[in-house]
Design a protein that fits this description.
With 310 residues, the protein is mainly α. The chain has helices at residues 16-30, 32-63, 74-79, 82-114, 118-129, 136-147, 152-159, 173-197, 202-209, 214-242, 246-251, 259-268, 273-306. The longest helix has 34 residues, at 273-306. Helix 4 (82-114) crosses helix 8. Helix content is 74%, strand content 0%.
Length: 310
């Protein structure tokens, strides 16, 4: 068209682009700082490859191999049906119950400790954390002594003539949840305490001076500020519970068998390595799903903060 002005089209990427990219990589590798960084990172990368990536990759291959050596999804289908599926659902249910109970107790404890003076708060946190460094086996046997039919708690309840005492608190789901909650509680308290200590106490005071009641302050100010810590603590507890073995094995019964116990049984008693590998990969995928959910919630929360919604 006569008189029209056409804007020049941007130059199309040609074969020079990869060459330029390779040139940048060569220049980066030629820098002493880059070489020094790679040299320092090499032991850690090798360590992760040998002890984490290779075992996971080997387990994945094992779970995809049939008894005749060919590729198959039989072990995954077997893991997601019948008694194996029941164990998987039991694991998810107990992990959810443990996470919920840990959040409730951890929230109350962390809220109380965050209001104490630094000296008393430090002493209480030591009491909370120190049991975490004791062997899980010792702690589990301690709970067995406390919760047994002739344990300390049942003897006290019987002496007080509580109707129905002694209660069955071991070798059932109640015993498993109590035991796993005691293991997860320090994680919850530490995470929530860190979040609660960072809350500006002037905000609730300012809301109270404006006439807001305690319930309104808790619902509109305190709880939204603690919510990220609650979500992080809940997902962390859930992920840790998924693969927990010792306490459910000692304090639960056959109906409370979890995936870790099932894997152990398939390897130790049945020598069924392929099925155990498939269960392990499913457990790993559930863990990744939990981490992905955590990142998604964090991204949504940060986006809301940037828009001034939180």
């Amino acid at each position: 068209m006569a008189g029209s002005v056409l804007a020049p089209a941007p130059p199309a990427p040609g074969p020079k682009a990869p060459a330029a990219s390779r040139g940048r990589v060569r220049r980066a590798l030629s820098e002493r700082r880059t070489r020094f960084g790679l040299l320092n990172a090499a032991p850690v990368v090798i360590y992760l490859l040998v002890l984490f990536v290779y075992p996971i990759f080997s387990t994945l291959l094992l779970s995809l191999k049939g008894e005749d050596g060919g590729w198959t999804l039989h072990w995954y289908a077997d893991a997601l049906q019948g008694s194996n599926l029941k164990v998987l659902l039991t694991t998810l249910r107990i992990s959810a119950e443990t996470s919920l109970l840990s959040l409730v107790i951890g929230f109350l404890l962390a809220a109380a400790v965050s209001r104490l003076k630094p000296l008393w708060a430090g002493l209480v946190m030591i009491i909370v954390i120190v049991p975490h460094f004791i062997s899980a086996l010792v702690r589990t046997y301690g709970w067995i002594i406390l919760l047994g039919e002739h344990g300390v708690i049942n003897n006290a309840l019987t002496d007080l003539d509580v109707p129905g005492a002694p209660f069955q608190m071991l070798y059932n789901e109640l015993g498993v949840v109590i035991g796993t909650t005691s293991v997860m509680l320090p994680y919850t308290v530490l995470l929530l305490y860190a979040v609660m200590k960072g809350i500006d106490r002037r905000l609730p005071a300012a809301a109270a001076s404006m006439g807001a009641g305690r319930l309104t302050i808790f619902r509109r100010i305190y709880l939204p500020m603690v919510a990220p810590g609650l979500i992080n603590a809940g997902i962390l507890c859930f992920i840790l519970c998924l693969g927990y073995y010792l306490t459910p094995a000692l304090m639960g019964g056959p109906k409370q068998a979890m995936v870790a116990s099932l894997i152990s049984e398939q390897v130790m008693k049945q020598s069924q390595w392929n099925g155990a590998a498939a269960l392990g990969i499913i457990l790993l995928l559930l863990t990744f799903a939990g981490l992905l959910l955590l990142r998604l919630i964090k991204a949504v929360s940060e986006a809301a903060k940037n828009r001034g919604i939180s």
